[in-house]
Specification:
Low-confidence stretches: none
Strand order of the largest sheet: 2-1-3-4-5
CATH class of the largest domain: Alpha Beta
Strand content: 5-15%
Bound molecules: iron/sulfur cluster
Radius of gyration: 25 Å
Largest sheet: 5 strands, parallel
CATH topology of the largest domain: pyruvate-formate lyase- activating enzyme
CATH superfamily of the largest domain: tm_1862 like domain
Structural class: alpha/beta
Length: 515
């Protein structure tokens, strides 16, 4: 019996690590002992009282921008096997998308980095030599096709926001090659997977029945088996209105569905309305999709699907006006069709970039921070409610841009500065701003983008006395004590109850990272 350690780096993530769960299943079938940790958990170290010897360590990776955290886990693994790097295997999304970077890191020479899925017999996928542990296993079922082992999740304290669910795929890959997306590189062409029924029955028999069904397909509506997949989902007990132990079940194609296909035939929405879909996520990545997107939403509404949600990419080739128009279209569709669309603006980062510093050519650092501040108050969700939307984002693209160029404490404490005791200061700021020429406004914006807010106070000292300097000082952040005091006095206005349950929000809304 070998000792196997599975590590998921210490980042916050929403879904359990499916790849590691399948590896656990494989090693369980070989009667190996499995330990699962999150981050650099010291319990994996040898102590005076408890020697630990790991025959093999697997590390999964997710977001490329979590490179530093991933690196810490890999270095930790090296220390756990006293430098025997040939015992370490690293796979997952970031390792696949940035394969060369991982492989070329000198301190990680000898570690096996796995690109893509474990889709062949175990010894082949894992690049094992014949004399290694299970190195002769060149004929077994691929690890990718195994039933994920849910039991390992009990070994860690971390609670994934989505838990009581079957996590699987009905199809892999995608027919498209969108430039901003890692799927074409990670998964390649669109293709079918094994039967949903066998995976779900396998999970249910071994780990008990689950309430929800999370399907991580990239583009399920492009599958030639789409209707069969829906029929299978219904047969598995996830028809519209279905319940488990009196609780509503939920089917979530969590990567979204493709408006360009949905708009072509009402059949797609008719079929989707037969299952317990919640929410229906339709991607709306740029204004050029507005027609197919609107048509898809209209079809959805006509079949009674009223709980909708979408990812809205921004900071790519779009402009702030493009984003505003997309969000605003949702408000109009909500009002017209009496539905509820919640949007999740997702800041674009190149999939191979190791931090979150990318700035799209029509965006700037200050506007991106402003978006982050607006979204922080709502956990990343944009409600399609007209009053809320107008207050948060303005009535027009011009008003939206004015909001993006406001001091961040004015954005974060809108009620205080626009309606209550902060009003005099806010009005003075507006007046000051209105006296700036457009060149001065551009100069101000450049300063705001060049320095971080903590540097503003110092840097603005070097400006010549005058209206530009006076206006710039409104952007110096207020103290934490002042912030707390405003927050206390206005807390009845802050509705911290997010309108969308945590398990239906996006995997990573990028609300906390420094831009
Ligand atoms: S359609 Fe979606 S999954 Fe496919 S390449 Fe484009 S963004 Fe990626």
């Amino acid at each position: 019996m070998a000792n196997i350690l599975l590590i998921e780096p210490g980042y916050k993530n929403k879904y359990p690590p499916l790849g590691l769960m399948k590896i656990a299943q494989y090693h369980h079938s070989k009667r190996d002992a499995i330990t699962f940790i999150k981050g650099e958990d010291p319990s994996a170290q040898t102590t005076l009282f408890e020697p630990k010897s790991w025959d093999r360590i697997y590390i999964t990776t997710l977001f490329s921008f979590e490179y530093q955290r991933i690196a810490r886990s890999i270095d930790y693994a090296i220390s756990l096997v006293a430098g025997q790097r040939n015992r370490i295997f690293v796979g997952g999304i970031a390792a696949s998308l940035m394969y060369e970077r991982f492989v070329n890191e000198p301190r990680w020479q000898g570690i096996r980095f796995i690109k893509g899925l474990l889709g062949e017999a175990p010894a082949i996928s894992l690049k094992l030599n014949r004399d290694e542990l299970h190195g002769d296993d060149v004929t077994s079922q691929p690890i990718e096709d195994l039933v994920p082992d849910y039991s390992i999740l009990d070994q860690i304290d971390y609670k994934y926001p989505v838990q009581d669910a079957y996590f699987t795929y009905a199809s892999r890959g995608c027919i498209r090659k969108c430039k901003f997306c890692g799927v074409p590189k990670l998964e390649g062409e669109q293709r079918d997977t094994n039967s949903l029924t066998s995976v779900i029955q396998g999970i249910s028999e071994r780990y008990g029945e689950k309430r929800d069904l999370i399907l991580m397909d990239n583009n399920v509506v492009a599958s030639p088996r789409f209707k069969d997949i829906i029929a299978e989902i219904i047969d598995l007990g996830f028809e519209h209105g279905s319940k488990l132990s009196l609780r509503q079940r939920r089917v979530d194609f969590n990567q979204g569905v493709d408006a360009r296909i949905l708009c072509k035939n009402a059949m797609f929405l008719r079929e989707l309305s037969r299952i317990a879909i919640k929410p229906l996520r339709i991607a709306f990545d740029h204004w050029g999709l507005s027609k197919p997107y609107s048509q898809a939403i209209r079809y959805a509404a006509s079949y009674g699907i009223t709980n909708l949600s979408n990812y809205m990419l921004y900071n790519f080739y779009d402009t702030p006006s493009d984003l505003f128009n997309r969000m605003h279209l949702n408000v109009k569709l909500n009002e017209e069709l009496n539905i509820q669309i919640f949007s999740f603006p997702m800041r674009y980062q190149p999939v191979t970039r190791v931090d979150r510093g990318h700035i799209g050519k029509s965006w700037n650092r200050y506007y991106l921070r402003s978006m982050q501040v607006i979204l922080q108050a709502t956990h990343g969700v944009v409600s399609g409610n007209s009053n809320y939307f107008r207050f948060a984002f303005g009535n027009s693209t011009e008003e939206f841009k004015d909001i993006l160029l406001r001091p961040h404490h004015f954005i974060f404490n809108r009620h205080w500065y626009e309606k209550y005791e902060g009003r005099a200061e806010y009005n003075a700021y507006l007046q000051s701003m209105s006296r700036l020429s457009s060149d001065e406004k551009n100069e101000l914006l450049e300063l705001l983008c060049t320095y971080s807010p903590t540097q503003y106070s110092q840097e603005f000292k070097s400006l010549s006395p005058g209206i530009l300097r006076d206006t710039a000082y409104y952007f110096v952040p207020i103290s934490k004590t002042e912030e707390r005091s405003i927050w206390q006095k206005t807390k009845h206005y802050h509705n911290n109850q997010c309108l969308v349950p945590e398990d239906e929000r996006v995997e990573d809304a990028g609300l906390t990272m420094e831009i």
